[in-house]
Amino acid sequence: MTNRRNFLQTTAAGALFGTGARNATASPPAGRDYFAELGVSEFINAAEPYTTLSGALMPSKAVEAYAYASTRYVRLNDLHDALGRKLAEMIGCESAMITSGAACGLTLGTAACVTLGHPEAVPRLPDVTGLKNEVIIQKAHRYGYDRAILTCGVRFVEVETREELEAAINENTAMMLFNNTNDPEGQIKVAEFAKLGKKHGIPTFDDCAADVPPKEHLSDYLNMGFDLVTASGGKGIHGPQNAGLLLGRKDLIAAARVNGPPNGSGIGRGMKVSKETMLAMFVAVETFFNSDHEADWREWERRVNLIAAAVSKIPSVRTEMFAPPLHYHVPHLRIQWDEIALELSPREVKEQLIGGKPSIELRHSLDDRLELGVWMLKEGEADIVAQRLVEILTPSA
Question: Which of 112, 131, 304, 379 has most Cβ atoms within 10 angstroms of its Cβ?
Fold first, then answer.
């Protein structure tokens, strides 16, 4: 047992960053070990690119772009303009901008729909007196991040059916918000929601923060008729964690720009995006679009199968590969077992993984199951995860 622990620690310390097309990064440079100096522990990410777990790792080209920008001066509005044009062309949308995360995109997109970029309205937010100040949302689509919309001073009008939605539209309706992850829960589905907005001339906004890959999701919902879409930069795209994309109608993106940084009077002034972050995000999107996504998928399946094969040798253990339909739509692994026979609960296994050496984080899931994400793993870490799970799940003699 001691030898196995030593092996795991040694392997973890020597593991290189992933070599897949989309998450390839350079090896850590020699020099100061800053996290060790600070007493901050690293871990193996068998979960997701959660914000609390510091998102995804950037590809080496994005890291190089960040360093490049750090040694040069540019005018931020010029850079916003240039990158917006390039991104819109690459993604296939009318207009685009880089934001300080998807939540920032929600705020700036809402501000755009409320103010339409009018100079006298922009500095007033969150005071929406005399402005359109209602956002229609399905009751089943209320979620934690909708605070980013309320920041603009608007109020939500909750509906459940198509009839309720159409009845709720009035002269104060600024926008209709759709949370893509909650599409299965709401009665009004994504395509119909977009059509209703078009029918009544109300801007529709789809929050697709964690819905890439596939890359087509960056344009699919705009093609359905949504006027705005926001996506996280630091998840499946592997950009900086504090970056995101706001995509959509040219006039609304222009209005969002007026409400955001570096302009001093908008509600988004504090949501700054540095030149380094902007350029790294652009290169991350470029790398993401040029990647072999089929090869990535095969590699993720290989990792799932490797871990599944290792733990399936343990009596009563059952495994299942699955891909969530929207949020983090990539291969994952679900592991279940006879808890009485193994004298272990999923919660206890998670605690041992997090508290072990190396520490391993798993996907958030119900207590009666253990779920792993493999797409954030570095090269060689699937083997470490498999061996650690076997060590914990194997009944003691």
Answer: 112
